[in-house]
Amino acid sequence: MLQATGRSPVRAAHLHFMVVAPRQRKLVTHIFVEGDPQLEIGDSVFGVKDSLIKKFEEHSPATPTPDGRVLEQSWTRATFDIVLAPENC
């Protein structure tokens, strides 16, 4: 089926999240890495939306992480909003 639709079984780089909070609906989502060539081929599970593609900024080892740590290796950071709906929606 993937071959017939011209899609690859390989998915673009992505991270999954499950977010829970009191009196809020649980959210399960993911974000994709902007610039991944696999995004141009198409997602085998049709899970990519433009709003889920995020830029990951690379930082050098000397740059402190948001929590103040200094790492021995470079690290990346993506910024995005997570909005939870009240559980009674």
TrEMBL record:
Domain (Intradiol ring-cleavage dioxygenases) ranges: 2-85
Keywords per UniProt: Dioxygenase, Oxidoreductase
Protein family membership: Belongs to the intradiol ring-cleavage dioxygenase family.
The keyword Translocase belongs to this UniProt entry's keyword annotation: no
Originating species: Corynebacterium pilosum
Classification via Gene3D superfamilies: Aromatic compound dioxygenase
EC number: 1.13.11.37
Example GO molecular function: ferric iron binding
Annotated PANTHER family: DIOXYGENASE, PUTATIVE (AFU_ORTHOLOGUE AFUA_2G02910)-RELATED (PTHR33711), INTRADIOL RING-CLEAVAGE DIOXYGENASES DOMAIN-CONTAINING PROTEIN-RELATED (PTHR33711:SF7)
Signal sequence extent: none
Protein name stated in the entry: Putative hydroxyquinol/catechol 1,2-dioxygenase
